[in-house]
Structure to design on (1452 residues):
């Protein structure tokens, strides 16, 4: 079957997902419009204006058209989708733009109409109010006229009757009072009308403003449409096919209608609650098979209908992507982006800032992809629901814990009203997290198996009755069917497990003959269960299904035995695979004919998910089926029981056989092992074509099967040996191509562990696996970048070993001439940081390491690979002490910012800050039994704190001086504190010290307990180690050592002690004999902290060189030198090499030793011990001689001014016998600058040096003959400044010099200075050489010092005028190539982890470099030697590469 293009398949899946999302959006929008409009048409038809009807008609037509286009695209065949996968992406983008345009047009047109309507309304209202005011004024005038007329009439009546009685007066007053009230009421009405007019006008203005803002927001939305690049970033986000309705879940469905009402209502009530005290997490917990996933599916589907489902993730332990916790947050983020356009933009912006955030640690994924976009989401309205099902199937378990604690840490901080539904089995690690204080307060548990049995069984009966009725209708079975009795039997057997009912239905409805009654009879005629498990009825059902399947298969086939064998083989493989495979891949793995797998499982569709598409992955329907088959107490039929060890043995054998038959070097036909994977065209397509799914599976999982296989299986052991001897490197290469190199580390560990348990294990094969493990550990970074790296770099730079010998023929180019270690370094792994590291500690299980840096960040690292697991940021200054809690869930850190902090390492959340100290906190430790944390500080106090809340518990004033460190006894009852003058011994429940240990040393620096709870060891700045009986307060032993003992560690078994050695190394001591037993070298700067792993096999050291190194303490260790011969061997102060490689000389260590190598032989170096300090060495071009300088100080001789006199010496050596041929010296004032230079002529006959200038500066040059050793001449620099670089002309007639401020040339025969000028600009020359024609001079200059080293440049100088005629970019290691007519400058650059050859035309990568070979920012560490490159390695050795061979290979 031809390989399918992975890119196209992924594009088709993405296109399909986007189209389905688009179609759902269009449907929701259509429903949103039509539902309220129907109501309006019925109840208030007058509200539907003609204009609105027209706009809605246009909108509906547009939506219908787009929906039709979408459905047409979705309904195409798979082949057409495959061919059009690229074009479809553009079509989908255009559909999105069209939808946005239609909606915006509808909204903008509506806004315009509404605005006009508002203006018209405003005008109409104004006219109405104006008319009202006129009417009121007219009424007031009429009333006033009436009032006046009535008053006159009353006066006339009084006058005519000549009566002035009280009755008439009362009537007048009453009448006038009534009119006054009427006038007053009219006035109030006028005020009310005026007020109403103003309020209505104001509100109309508000509506108008809101519409304007809406228009602006709409226009802004148009400008926020995602670019093609942003959409591609979203598409490239790593994610799992884990939605509730994803294809990977097969025919998964929700609850049957009418069932689970109580549970669903409980969840809906929780979701709909507006009470701010409602917990944001709902934990649905229940036994396997009880129906959790079905409920979760129902909720997800219902909430999506309500447009409230932000995301869903349904875990499955059978599928790699659905059990992988690293894909959870990216998958949720992607779904949130699909859910809402604003969230899509925010997630896309996060990906623009960091395109690889989907591959980051979970804490960072959550922060960047979920928390920050949700926090910035301005359009949030209502509840947002996320459903996470089967959390217990997340692997590893720590991933599930991280997910829970991350939500616990962040939910309350998010402004979005999130509701998280989580379902799981009641597994211990999940229960423990939900019972923790952080989750208990924000979660609502619901225990599904605690529901009353009768309620659950009623739901199961309802489900069975309806589904069986449907089966009866499909098959024409007369109803009612089944009988009530038969139904009750099934319900009784189901008990409270829905998985029984679901499996029974699938079984009854399945089968070739499709006879439901016969299958129902099979279930009803079961034997009494023999199992006593709580799953006995499910177990019985599974047994019946299997027995029926076997019977059916045997009836269909002639060869019953073969049929049964194939049936078992297929079933065993499907059930035990770590990741599911398609039927075709299973057939390839099992060497079966096409169609065999689907035929074998024809009658197992009730327990297996078998997709209709041929490339769909076949998997177990429910995890309880695998549990049943692999448990002998549950699966009591021997023909079906899968013995785990035997089955794993068969699977491991299968995988190994397939890899032995298939794996090969360069499987993708790249043909250039030097290329990085990212540089290979169409690599993804090539990989898919060359590495089939079943081979990919074998590469990733064979070791997991092997680890559980029988070690006594001889055939399997032979397969492992064959694999190791022939396919090991091809396997690692394949892992690089599929992007999973890191899986090789645990795989090799499992292989080696299994093989060592076999009876036939040999040292050779064990070493082969050990070598492979070490190669992957040390070269993993390079192998991740390039599949060919295992051949081009890992093998060449590795030490001589069994693996290198076995695969010698696979090395394409032997370019590493020397410099490989003689054996595997004791340093297993070097973990690099950007800052100096001051503290380190192991977790109790050895799985993790915590390291504190000088800048404040704390890192949690893998104890086996060194990979970063968590970054804890919060301290503002250096971290002096770190510790793990006993259960490994928390880390404590103490820092120079006067605080200590407690962290949850799973989530990275800061649990507490301990801030009572007033000075540097120097020590911290958990007290395992008491839930307490102890700290000590430079403020002289010892404090205890609650280990979770951080609440202060106690404080004691420990000392009158600073406490610089401490240690806790193994039993947790004693704390030892370190001060300059004493070691304090304190019982935790006492306020006064038990003892103060004071010896000869008065400057204690470190302390550690032995496991006997009686003795401890102290170290001091005076280089003394003391062994104490701390209870008696007596000194037992005192040792003088070679370094300040700033840190020390004791192994938990008490057998080893580790202390710093000459700052940059670590010395191991045997604590039984109290003698040094080994030296661990590799750090480039001071060792600050040490910690043994719990099994005492590994030591972690933290250093100022910004690394944590992990050291193997089990094997043979380099012996520490005797104290009388102590000399640091790290680094090189100077390195020189002849042009032919016959002589390489280095000055190393304390500069009192020279080592001499020859690249023409692989012999050990010869050493010359010097009497004085030396910091300069120079080789003659032909390698016959070399020169060195020396400075003898403190001679006890003084000049007239009272300055001490130093003796500066220059020695000439014979490279063959190392005899000193000549010594020249001069007495110089002790304040002399020490600047100077020396150079051999190109024929080696002359030697020039400014090192012997007698004055305070090196401004005088002497020239000697190397044959007669006589001084030929002396030249003085008239600039009177240091001469820093020299060069002879090719004919030995001229000597060019570069001083601190200028250039000059001397004529050697006459001694005259021919020319001298000031050099342009401030720069210091480092090296010079004449061109072959003597007309030009090459000069390498340092322009300025920078944070990262130095800024360098190359100058070409005219030898007549000394003017600079060419300016070239450069590095310290450069040379001129070419003839007289044309030339070019080439130079080496150390970019990241690779060495590049650069020039004007660009750069070409030569090779990858191990950490010890990288030269960026260092001085004199790499020199040319003809065709060779010579490196000064940090271990005191030199390395050499065949430059010309590398160059030729790189340019091919």
């Amino acid at each position: 079957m031809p390989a399918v293009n992975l890119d196209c398949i992924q594009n088709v899946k993405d296109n399909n997902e986007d189209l389905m999302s688009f179609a759902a959006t269009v449907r929701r929008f259509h429903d949103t419009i039509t539902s309220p409009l129907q109501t309006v048409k019925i109840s208030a038809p007058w509200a539907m204006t003609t204009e609105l009807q027209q706009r809605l008609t246009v909108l509906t037509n547009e939506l219908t058209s787009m929906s039709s286009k979408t459905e047409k695209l979705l309904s195409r065949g798979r082949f057409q989708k495959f061919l059009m996968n690229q074009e479809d992406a553009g079509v989908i983008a255009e559909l999105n733009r069209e939808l946005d345009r239609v909606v915006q047009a509808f909204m903008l047109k509506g806004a315009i109409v509404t605005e006009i309507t508002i203006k018209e309304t405003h005008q109409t209202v104004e006219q109405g109010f104006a008319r009202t005011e006129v009417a009121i004024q007219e009424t007031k005038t009429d009333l006033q006229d009436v009032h006046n007329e009535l008053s006159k009439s009353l006066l006339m009546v009084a006058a005519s009757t000549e009566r002035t009685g009280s009755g008439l007066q009362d009537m007048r007053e009453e009448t006038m009072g009534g009119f006054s009230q009427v006038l007053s009421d009219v006035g109030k009405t006028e005020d009310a009308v005026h007020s109403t007019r103003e309020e209505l006008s104001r509100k109309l203005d508000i509506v108008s403003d809101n519409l304007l803002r809406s228009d602006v927001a709409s226009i802004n939305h148009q400008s926020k449409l995602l670019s093609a690049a942003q959409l591609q970033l979203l598409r490239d986000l790593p994610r799992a096919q884990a939605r509730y309705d994803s294809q990977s879940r097969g025919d998964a469905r929700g609850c049957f209608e009418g069932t689970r009402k109580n549970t669903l209502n409980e969840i809906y009530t929780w979701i709909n609650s507006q009470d701010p005290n409602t917990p944001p997490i709902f934990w649905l917990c229940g036994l396997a098979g009880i129906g959790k996933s079905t409920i979760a599916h129902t909720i997800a589907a219902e909430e999506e209908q309500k447009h409230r489902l932000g995301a869903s993730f349904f875990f499955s332990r059978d599928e790699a992507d659905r059990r992988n916790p690293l894909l959870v947050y990216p998958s949720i983020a992607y779904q949130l982006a699909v859910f809402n356009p604003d969230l899509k933009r925010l997630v896309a912006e996060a990906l623009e800032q960091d395109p690889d955030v989907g591959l980051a640690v979970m804490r960072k994924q959550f922060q960047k992809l979920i928390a920050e976009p949700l926090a910035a989401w301005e359009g949030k309205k209502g509840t947002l629901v996320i459903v996470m099902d089967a959390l217990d199937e997340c692997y590893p378990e720590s991933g599930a814990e991280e997910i829970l604690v991350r939500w616990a840490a962040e939910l309350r901080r998010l402004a979005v009203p999130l509701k998280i539904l989580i379902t799981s089995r009641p597994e211990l690690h999940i229960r423990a997290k939900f019972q923790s204080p952080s989750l208990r307060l924000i979660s609502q548990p619901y225990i599904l198996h605690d529901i009353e049995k009768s309620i659950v069984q009623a739901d199961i009966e309802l489900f069975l009755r309806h589904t069986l009725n449907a089966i009866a209708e499909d098959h024409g079975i007369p109803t009612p069917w089944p009988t009530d009795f038969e139904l009750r039997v099934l319900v009784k057997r189901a008990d409270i497990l829905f998985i029984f009912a679901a499996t029974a239905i699938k079984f009854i409805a399945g089968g070739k003959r499709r006879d439901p009654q016969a299958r129902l009879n099979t279930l009803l005629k079961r034997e009494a269960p023999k199992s006593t498990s709580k799953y006995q009825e499910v177990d019985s059902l599974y047994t019946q299904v299997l027995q029926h399947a076997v019977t059916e298969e045997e009836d269909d086939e002639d060869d019953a035995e073969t049929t049964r064998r194939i049936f078992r083989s297929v079933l065993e493989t499907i059930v035990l695979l770590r990741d599911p495979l398609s039927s075709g891949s299973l057939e390839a793995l099992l060497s079966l004919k096409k169609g065999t797998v689907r035929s074998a499982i024809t009658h197992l569709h009730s327990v297996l998910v078998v997709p209709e598409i041929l490339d769909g992955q076949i998997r177990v329907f429910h995890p309880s089926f695998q549990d049943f088959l692999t448990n002998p107490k549950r699966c009591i039929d021997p023909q079906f029981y899968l013995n785990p060890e035997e089955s794993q043995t068969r699977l491991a054998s299968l995988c190994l056989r397939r890899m032995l038959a298939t794996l090969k070097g360069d499987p993708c036909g790249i043909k250039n092992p030097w290329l990085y994977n990212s540089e290979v065209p169409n690599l993804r397509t090539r990989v898919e074509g060359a590495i089939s799914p079943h081979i990919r599976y074998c590469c990733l999982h064979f070791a997991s099967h092997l680890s559980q296989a029988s070690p006594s299986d001889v055939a399997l052991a032979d397969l492992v040996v064959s694999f190791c001897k022939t396919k090991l490197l091809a396997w690692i290469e394949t892992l690089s191509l599929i992007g999973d190199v890191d899986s090789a580390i645990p795989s090799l560990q499992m292989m080696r562990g299994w093989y060592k348990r076999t009876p036939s294990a040999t040292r050779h094969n064990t070493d082969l696996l050990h070598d492979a493990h070490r190669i992957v550990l040390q070269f993993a970074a390079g192998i991740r970048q390039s599949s060919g790296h295992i051949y081009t770099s890992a093998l060449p730079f590795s030490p001589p070993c069994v693996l290198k010998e076995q695969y010698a023929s696979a090395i394409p180019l032997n370019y590493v001439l020397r410099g490989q270690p003689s054996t595997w370094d004791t340093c297993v792994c070097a973990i690099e940081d950007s800052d100096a590291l001051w503290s380190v500690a192991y977790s109790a299980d050895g799985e993790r390491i915590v390291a504190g840096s000088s800048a404040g960040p704390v890192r949690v690292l893998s104890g086996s690979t060194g990979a970063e697991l968590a970054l804890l940021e919060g301290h503002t200054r250096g971290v002096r002490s770190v510790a793990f809690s006993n259960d490994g869930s928390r880390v404590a850190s103490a820092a120079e910012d006067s605080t200590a902090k407690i962290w949850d390492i799973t989530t990275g959340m800061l649990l507490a800050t301990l801030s009572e100290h007033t000075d540097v906190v120097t020590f911290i430790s958990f007290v395992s039994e008491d839930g307490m944390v102890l700290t000590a500080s430079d403020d002289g106090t010892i404090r205890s704190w609650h280990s979770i809340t951080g609440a202060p518990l106690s404080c004691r004033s420990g000392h009158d001086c600073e406490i610089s460190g401490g240690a806790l006894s193994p039993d947790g009852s004693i704390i030892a504190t370190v001060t300059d003058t004493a070691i304090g011994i304190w019982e935790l429940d006492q306020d006064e010290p038990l003892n103060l240990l004071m010896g000869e040393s008065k400057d204690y620096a470190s302390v550690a307990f032995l496991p006997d709870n009686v003795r401890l060891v102290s170290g001091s700045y005076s280089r003394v180690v003391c062994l104490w009986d701390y209870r008696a307060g007596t000194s037992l032993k005192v040792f003088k050592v070679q370094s300040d003992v700033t840190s020390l560690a004791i192994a938990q078994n008490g057998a080893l002690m580790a202390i710093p050695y000459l700052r940059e190394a670590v010395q191991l001591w045997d604590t039984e004999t109290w003698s040094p037993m080994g030296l661990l070298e590799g750090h480039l700067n001071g060792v600050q902290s040490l910690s043994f792993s719990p099994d005492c096999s590994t030591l972690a050291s933290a250093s100022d060189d910004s690394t944590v190194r992990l050291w193997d303490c089990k094997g043979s260790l380099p012996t520490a030198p005797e104290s009388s011969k102590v000399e640091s061997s790290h680094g090189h102060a100077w390195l020189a090499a002849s042009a032919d490689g016959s002589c390489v000389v280095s000055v190393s260590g304390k500069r009192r030793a020279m080592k001499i190598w020859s690249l023409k032989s692989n012999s050990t170096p010869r050493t010359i011990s010097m009497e004085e300090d030396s910091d300069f060495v120079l080789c003659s071009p032909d390698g016959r001689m070399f020169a060195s300088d020396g400075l003898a100080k403190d001679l006890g001789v003084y000049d007239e001014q009272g300055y001490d006199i130093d003796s500066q010496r220059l020695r000439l050596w014979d490279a063959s016998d190392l005899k000193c041929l000549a010594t020249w010296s001069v007495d110089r004032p002790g304040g002399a600058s020490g600047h100077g230079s020396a150079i051999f002529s190109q024929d080696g006959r002359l030697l020039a040096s400014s090192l012997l200038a007698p004055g305070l500066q090196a401004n005088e040059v002497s020239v000697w003959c190397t044959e007669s050793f006589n001084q030929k001449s002396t030249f003085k620099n008239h600039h009177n400044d240091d001469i820093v670089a020299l060069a002879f002309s090719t004919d030995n007639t001229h000597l060019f010099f570069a001083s601190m401020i200028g250039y000059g040339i001397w004529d050697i025969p006459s001694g005259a200075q021919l020319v001298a000028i000031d050099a342009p600009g401030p720069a210091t020359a480092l090296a010079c050489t004449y061109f072959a024609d003597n007309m030009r001079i090459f000069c390498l200059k340092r322009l300025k010092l920078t944070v990262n080293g130095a800024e360098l440049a190359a100058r070409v100088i005219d030898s007549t005028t000394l003017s600079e005629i060419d300016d070239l970019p450069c590095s310290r290691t450069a040379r001129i190539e070419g003839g007289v007519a044309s030339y070019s400058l080439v130079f080496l650059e150390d970019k990241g982890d690779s060495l590049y050859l650069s020039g004007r035309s660009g750069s070409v990568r030569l090779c990858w470099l191990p950490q010890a070979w990288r030269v960026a920012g260092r001085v004199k560490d790499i020199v040319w030697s003809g065709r060779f490159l010579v490196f000064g390695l940090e271990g005191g050795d030199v390395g050499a590469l065949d430059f010309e061979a590398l160059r030729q290979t790189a340019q091919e």
In short: DSSP finds 34 helices and 64 strands in the chain. The radius of gyration is 43 Å. Residues 22 and 96 are 8 Å apart (CA to CA).
